[in-house]
Amino acid sequence: MKFFIDTADLQQIETAMGWGCMAGVTTNPTLYARTGGKLADFENHMVKIAHLCEGLPVSAESTATTTDEMVVEGKRLAALAPNIVVKLPICAESLAATKQLKEAGVNVNMTLVFNVTQALMACAAGARYVSPFVGRFDDIAEDGIEQLSNIIAAVKNYYLPEHTEIIAASLRTPHHVAQAALLGSDIATVPFDALEKCLKHPLTQQGLASFEEDWASVK
Ligand code: G3P
Fold it and tell me: Does residue 219 surpass a pLDDT of 90?
Protein backbone atom coordinates (compact mmCIF):
# COMPACT_ATOMS: atom_id res chain seq x y z
CA MET A 1 0.00 0.00 0.00
CA LYS A 2 1.26 3.45 -0.89
CA PHE A 3 1.12 6.31 1.62
CA PHE A 4 -0.16 9.74 0.57
CA ILE A 5 -0.28 12.72 2.92
CA ASP A 6 -3.70 14.37 3.27
CA THR A 7 -2.84 18.04 3.81
CA ALA A 8 -2.20 21.34 2.04
CA ASP A 9 0.39 22.46 4.60
CA LEU A 10 3.74 22.97 2.85
CA GLN A 11 5.81 22.36 6.00
CA GLN A 12 4.00 19.09 6.74
CA ILE A 13 4.43 17.96 3.14
CA GLU A 14 8.15 18.78 3.13
CA THR A 15 8.69 16.96 6.43
CA ALA A 16 6.73 13.86 5.39
CA MET A 17 8.41 13.73 1.97
CA GLY A 18 11.75 13.72 3.78
CA TRP A 19 10.83 10.41 5.42
CA GLY A 20 11.30 8.63 2.09
CA CYS A 21 8.11 6.59 2.24
CA MET A 22 5.50 8.97 0.85
CA ALA A 23 4.05 8.53 -2.64
CA GLY A 24 1.70 11.47 -3.14
CA VAL A 25 -0.45 14.24 -1.69
CA THR A 26 -4.18 14.85 -1.50
CA THR A 27 -5.70 18.23 -0.71
CA ASN A 28 -9.23 19.56 -0.50
CA PRO A 29 -10.75 23.04 0.01
CA THR A 30 -11.02 22.52 3.79
CA LEU A 31 -7.36 21.54 4.04
CA TYR A 32 -6.35 24.54 1.90
CA ALA A 33 -8.47 26.92 4.01
CA ARG A 34 -6.72 25.54 7.11
CA THR A 35 -3.39 26.85 5.78
CA GLY A 36 -4.82 30.40 5.85
CA GLY A 37 -4.54 30.66 2.05
CA LYS A 38 -6.99 32.68 -0.06
CA LEU A 39 -8.79 31.53 -3.20
CA ALA A 40 -6.73 33.93 -5.35
CA ASP A 41 -3.54 32.13 -4.29
CA PHE A 42 -4.91 28.58 -4.59
CA GLU A 43 -3.27 27.71 -7.92
CA ASN A 44 0.14 29.10 -6.84
CA HIS A 45 -0.12 27.01 -3.69
CA MET A 46 -0.86 23.86 -5.72
CA VAL A 47 2.20 24.57 -7.89
CA LYS A 48 4.34 24.84 -4.74
CA ILE A 49 3.04 21.46 -3.53
CA ALA A 50 3.54 19.88 -6.95
CA HIS A 51 7.18 21.07 -6.97
CA LEU A 52 7.77 19.76 -3.43
CA CYS A 53 6.87 16.27 -4.59
CA GLU A 54 7.89 16.18 -8.23
CA GLY A 55 6.84 13.04 -10.06
CA LEU A 56 4.31 12.07 -7.38
CA PRO A 57 0.55 12.63 -7.78
CA VAL A 58 -0.93 15.72 -6.10
CA SER A 59 -4.73 15.98 -5.98
CA ALA A 60 -6.09 19.52 -6.44
CA GLU A 61 -9.85 19.86 -6.04
CA SER A 62 -11.99 21.73 -8.52
CA THR A 63 -14.54 24.24 -7.21
CA ALA A 64 -16.72 24.00 -10.36
CA THR A 65 -20.28 22.67 -10.27
CA THR A 66 -21.18 22.05 -13.95
CA THR A 67 -19.58 19.54 -16.29
CA ASP A 68 -18.30 22.22 -18.67
CA GLU A 69 -16.79 24.24 -15.83
CA MET A 70 -15.18 21.12 -14.32
CA VAL A 71 -13.59 20.26 -17.65
CA VAL A 72 -12.25 23.79 -18.15
CA GLU A 73 -11.00 24.09 -14.56
CA GLY A 74 -9.67 20.53 -14.60
CA LYS A 75 -7.56 21.20 -17.70
CA ARG A 76 -6.35 24.44 -16.16
CA LEU A 77 -5.32 22.72 -12.90
CA ALA A 78 -3.65 19.86 -14.77
CA ALA A 79 -1.64 22.37 -16.82
CA LEU A 80 -0.12 23.83 -13.64
CA ALA A 81 2.25 20.87 -13.23
CA PRO A 82 2.58 17.40 -14.80
CA ASN A 83 1.88 15.62 -11.50
CA ILE A 84 -1.42 17.35 -10.72
CA VAL A 85 -4.49 15.13 -10.51
CA VAL A 86 -7.90 16.80 -10.64
CA LYS A 87 -10.10 15.97 -7.68
CA LEU A 88 -13.85 15.98 -8.32
CA PRO A 89 -16.71 15.14 -5.93
CA ILE A 90 -18.90 12.27 -7.18
CA CYS A 91 -22.08 13.44 -8.95
CA ALA A 92 -23.61 13.20 -12.44
CA GLU A 93 -21.74 16.33 -13.62
CA SER A 94 -18.37 15.05 -12.41
CA LEU A 95 -18.83 11.63 -14.03
CA ALA A 96 -19.36 13.34 -17.38
CA ALA A 97 -16.39 15.62 -16.72
CA THR A 98 -14.20 12.63 -15.78
CA LYS A 99 -14.86 10.96 -19.12
CA GLN A 100 -13.93 14.12 -21.01
CA LEU A 101 -10.88 14.80 -18.86
CA LYS A 102 -9.63 11.24 -19.30
CA GLU A 103 -9.99 11.60 -23.08
CA ALA A 104 -7.91 14.78 -22.78
CA GLY A 105 -5.22 12.89 -20.82
CA VAL A 106 -6.07 14.41 -17.42
CA ASN A 107 -6.14 12.13 -14.36
CA VAL A 108 -9.15 12.43 -12.03
CA ASN A 109 -9.44 11.47 -8.36
CA MET A 110 -13.16 10.95 -7.63
CA THR A 111 -13.80 11.93 -4.03
CA LEU A 112 -16.63 11.82 -1.47
CA VAL A 113 -17.26 8.18 -2.38
CA PHE A 114 -19.33 6.33 0.22
CA ASN A 115 -20.66 3.22 -1.49
CA VAL A 116 -19.92 0.50 -4.02
CA THR A 117 -22.10 1.87 -6.81
CA GLN A 118 -20.57 5.34 -6.65
CA ALA A 119 -17.11 3.77 -6.82
CA LEU A 120 -17.95 1.53 -9.78
CA MET A 121 -19.55 4.40 -11.70
CA ALA A 122 -16.44 6.52 -11.12
CA CYS A 123 -14.25 3.69 -12.44
CA ALA A 124 -16.50 3.22 -15.47
CA ALA A 125 -16.26 6.94 -16.29
CA GLY A 126 -12.46 6.61 -16.27
CA ALA A 127 -11.41 7.94 -12.87
CA ARG A 128 -7.71 7.23 -12.24
CA TYR A 129 -8.37 7.16 -8.48
CA VAL A 130 -11.47 6.67 -6.33
CA SER A 131 -11.46 7.89 -2.74
CA PRO A 132 -13.81 6.05 -0.36
CA PHE A 133 -14.20 7.87 2.97
CA VAL A 134 -13.91 6.01 6.26
CA GLY A 135 -13.95 8.45 9.20
CA ARG A 136 -17.11 10.25 8.15
CA PHE A 137 -19.05 6.98 8.53
CA ASP A 138 -17.65 6.64 12.03
CA ASP A 139 -18.84 10.23 12.69
CA ILE A 140 -22.43 9.06 12.14
CA ALA A 141 -21.92 5.82 14.13
CA GLU A 142 -21.66 3.61 11.04
CA ASP A 143 -18.82 1.26 10.13
CA GLY A 144 -16.52 3.06 7.68
CA ILE A 145 -14.10 0.13 7.48
CA GLU A 146 -16.88 -2.22 6.39
CA GLN A 147 -17.87 0.19 3.60
CA LEU A 148 -14.23 0.47 2.54
CA SER A 149 -13.97 -3.32 2.48
CA ASN A 150 -17.03 -3.59 0.22
CA ILE A 151 -15.75 -0.92 -2.16
CA ILE A 152 -12.30 -2.52 -2.44
CA ALA A 153 -13.82 -5.95 -3.15
CA ALA A 154 -16.18 -4.60 -5.81
CA VAL A 155 -13.63 -2.42 -7.60
CA LYS A 156 -11.03 -5.20 -7.62
CA ASN A 157 -13.57 -7.57 -9.17
CA TYR A 158 -13.52 -5.46 -12.32
CA TYR A 159 -10.57 -3.06 -12.47
CA LEU A 160 -6.79 -3.32 -12.22
CA PRO A 161 -4.80 -0.63 -10.39
CA GLU A 162 -3.45 0.45 -13.81
CA HIS A 163 -7.02 1.60 -14.58
CA THR A 164 -8.19 2.85 -11.16
CA GLU A 165 -6.43 2.89 -7.80
CA ILE A 166 -8.33 3.07 -4.53
CA ILE A 167 -7.29 5.81 -2.12
CA ALA A 168 -8.67 5.05 1.34
CA ALA A 169 -9.48 8.54 2.64
CA SER A 170 -10.91 10.26 5.68
CA LEU A 171 -8.54 8.11 7.75
CA ARG A 172 -8.05 9.49 11.22
CA THR A 173 -6.16 6.82 13.19
CA PRO A 174 -3.37 4.21 12.80
CA HIS A 175 -6.12 1.59 13.14
CA HIS A 176 -7.88 2.99 10.05
CA VAL A 177 -4.59 2.94 8.13
CA ALA A 178 -3.77 -0.64 9.15
CA GLN A 179 -7.26 -1.80 8.20
CA ALA A 180 -6.97 -0.12 4.79
CA ALA A 181 -3.75 -2.08 4.23
CA LEU A 182 -5.21 -5.39 5.40
CA LEU A 183 -8.17 -4.91 3.06
CA GLY A 184 -5.86 -4.35 0.09
CA SER A 185 -6.35 -0.64 -0.54
CA ASP A 186 -3.84 0.58 -3.16
CA ILE A 187 -3.25 3.82 -1.28
CA ALA A 188 -4.01 5.37 2.11
CA THR A 189 -4.11 9.14 2.37
CA VAL A 190 -3.37 10.15 5.92
CA PRO A 191 -3.23 13.49 7.81
CA PHE A 192 0.17 14.46 9.21
CA ASP A 193 -0.72 13.89 12.88
CA ALA A 194 -2.05 10.41 12.13
CA LEU A 195 1.09 9.61 10.09
CA GLU A 196 3.22 10.55 13.08
CA LYS A 197 1.11 8.27 15.28
CA CYS A 198 1.51 5.45 12.70
CA LEU A 199 5.29 5.74 13.15
CA LYS A 200 5.16 5.14 16.87
CA HIS A 201 4.49 2.22 19.18
CA PRO A 202 4.92 2.22 23.00
CA LEU A 203 7.30 -0.77 22.77
CA THR A 204 9.42 1.01 20.15
CA GLN A 205 9.65 4.05 22.41
CA GLN A 206 10.50 1.77 25.37
CA GLY A 207 13.17 0.01 23.29
CA LEU A 208 14.72 3.34 22.28
CA ALA A 209 14.79 4.49 25.91
CA SER A 210 16.50 1.27 27.03
CA PHE A 211 19.13 1.61 24.25
CA GLU A 212 19.91 5.07 25.58
CA GLU A 213 20.34 3.71 29.12
CA ASP A 214 22.52 0.82 27.82
CA TRP A 215 24.78 3.16 25.88
CA ALA A 216 25.09 5.43 28.92
CA SER A 217 26.07 2.43 31.11
CA VAL A 218 28.93 1.37 28.80
CA LYS A 219 30.39 4.85 28.35
O1 G3P B 1 -8.95 14.06 1.42
C2 G3P B 1 -10.03 14.41 2.22
C3 G3P B 1 -10.50 13.39 3.20
O4 G3P B 1 -9.48 12.56 3.61
C5 G3P B 1 -11.32 14.04 4.30
O6 G3P B 1 -11.08 13.59 5.59
O7 G3P B 1 -11.21 13.80 8.05
O8 G3P B 1 -12.33 15.53 6.60
O9 G3P B 1 -13.26 13.24 6.76
P10 G3P B 1 -12.02 14.06 6.82
Answer: no
pLDDT at 212 over 90: no
Q: Give 3's strand partners.
A: 22, 188
- From 6, 62, 88, give the residue whose CB has the most ligand 1 atoms within 8 Å, as the site to mutate: 6
- CA-wise closest residue to 187 among 123, 132, 139: 132
Residue ID of nearest Cα to ligand 1 atom 6 = 170
CA angle 104, 86, 31 (to 5 degrees): 170
Burial 115-148 (b: 16+ CB within 10 A, else e): ebebbbbbbebbbbbbbbbbeebbeeeeebbebb
Residues 68-83: pLDDT tens digits?
Answer: 999 999 999 999 999 9
The answer to whether the CB of 70 falls within 8 A of the CB of 62 is: yes
Catalytic-labelled residue, pool 38, 75, 87, 102: 87
d(CA 170, CA 150): 16
- DSSP for 126-153, please give it: T-SEEEEBSHHHHHTTS-HHHHHHHHHH
Q: Going by CA atoms, what residue is nearest to atom 7 of ligand 1?
A: 170
The mean per-residue pLDDT over the stretch 186-197 comes to 98
CB burial readout 155-179, b (16+ within 10 A) else e: bbeebeeeebbbbbbbbbebebbeb
